[in-house]
Specification:
The protein has twelve helices and ten strands. It is α/β, with parallel strands linked by helices. It has an eight-stranded parallel beta sheet. It has a two-stranded antiparallel ribbon with strand order 3-4.
Length: 295
C-alpha cells in the first residue's frame, strides 16, 4: 500500500522564512529548521522510505514580526511556489494550498478555488495560532463552504508552537468543535492531534465523523507515547482517521518509531495496532482523502 507523509513544509531561508523565525521555532528542541525545496523534500522522503509527501504553503505576512527584526517579518511560501515545486516531482509531491483568511476574506475564497482548479492542489492548510484567528470566526465560513464545494480537506495547525508571537489561545483543538457543528460535511484535519491537549483532540476526532488527525512530530515522543494515543483513538473507533505526518527535521527518522509501536504494545500487555490499521495510518487513508493517484 502507498505511504504518505501529509506534513511536509517547503521553506527557503531567508528568502521565504526569516532566519530568526526558524531559530525561534526549533530552539526548545535543540534543532535547526532545515531549508527545504521540492528536491530536498523528495530526497528526505526517499531516505524515509515514504512514497508521497504533501507539501504546504503558508502566508504569515500580516502577523509575523519580531521587535528586534523590524525589517525581517514577511513569511510567505506562496501557493504558486509550492505548485511549481510539485510539478518538478510528479507522483512524489502533492500541493497543499494556504491563505491568510483575514488578510482578504473574499480574496481567500477566490484564491482557494484557483489553487484547486488551476494548480491541482489537494487540500487547504490554515494556521490559527500563526495568523491570530479563531477557527469559528464567521469571516471564514465562505472559505469552509468553498472547501466543501471543492471536496477538499481543511488542515488546521492546532496545538503548541514555540513561536512567541503565536498566541496559545488559538491553539486548543476544542476550538474546532464549533466548526464541526456548523459544517458537518467539512473534512477537517487536526494537526499534531492538538498536542498538548491530546485527550481533547482524541475526543474531537471521535465525535465528528469527518474529522481526521495528523500525528506530526509524535514520533519525537517515542513509541510508547505514540502507542498510548493510538490505542485511545482505537478504543473509540477513530483509528481509521489517523494520518501519518513527520515535520521536516524528523522526516527520515519517524517511520522507524511507527514500526516500534507494537513492541510497545507487547511490553505493556495491551492490544496491538493491526497491520491494516497501520497501513491506513501510513498512507491508505491519506491517499483517499487527498485523492492521490487520481487526476
Amino acid at each position: 500500500m502507498i505511504t504518505v507523509d501529509i506534513h511536509v513544509h517547503l521553506a527557503e531561508i531567508p528568502d521565504q522564512v526569516p532566519k530568526w523565525w526558524a531559530e525561534e521555532l526549533y530552539r526548545p528542541f535543540g534543532l535547526e529548521f532545515p531549508p527545504t525545496n521540492g528536491k530536498l523534500a523528495v530526497e528526505l522522503l526517499d531516505e524515509a522510505g515514504i512514497d508521497v509527501g504533501c507539501v504546504m504553503a503558508a502566508d504569515y505576512r500580516r502577523t509575523t514580526h519580531h521587535p528586534d527584526h523590524p525589517h525581517e517579518h514577511e513569511l510567505l511560501i506562496s501557493n504558486d511556489y509550492v505548485a511549481a515545486e510539485v510539478r518538478k516531482h510528479p507522483g512524489r509531491l502533492v500541493g497543499v494550498a494556504s491563505v491568510d483568511p483575514l488578510r482578504d476574506p473574499q480574496g481567500a475564497v477566490i484564491e482557494l478555488e484557483r489553487c484547486v482548479k488551476e494548480l491541482d492542489m489537494r487540500a487547504l492548510k490554515l494556521y490559527p495560532t500563526y495568523n491570530h484567528f479563531y477557527p469559528a470566526d464567521e469571516r471564514l465560513f465562505p472559505l469552509y463552504e468553498k472547501a466543501i464545494e471543492l471536496d477538499i480537506p481543511v488542515h488546521f495547525h492546532m496545538g503548541w508552537t514555540p513561536l512567541i508571537n503565536a498566541p496559545m489561545k488559538f491553539q486548543d483543538p476544542v476550538l474546532l468543535d464549533d466548526v464541526g457543528i456548523a459544517f458537518r460535511q467539512l473534512k477537517v484535519i487536526v494537526a499534531h492531534l492538538g498536542y498538548p491537549w491530546v485527550d481533547q483532540g482524541i475526543c474531537l476526532v471521535a465525535k465528528h465523523p469527518n474529522f481526521y488527525c495528523d500525528m506530526a512530530y509524535w514520533g519525537g515522543f517515542g513509541p510508547e507515547f505514540l502507542y498510548q494515543a493510538l490505542l485511545k483513538l482505537k478504543s473509540i473507533n477513530a483509528i481509521g482517521r489517523v494520518l501519518y505526518g513527520s515535520e521536516n527535521v524528523c522526516t527520515t527518522t519517524f517511520p522507524e518509531v511507527y514500526r516500534q509501536v507494537n513492541g510497545a504494545a507487547e511490553r505493556l500487555g495491551l492490544p496491538r495496532i493491526t497491520a491494516e490499521e497501520m497501513a491506513n495510518i501510513m498512507g491508505g487513508t491519506a491517499a483517499e482523502l487527498y485523492k492521490i493517484g487520481k487526476s
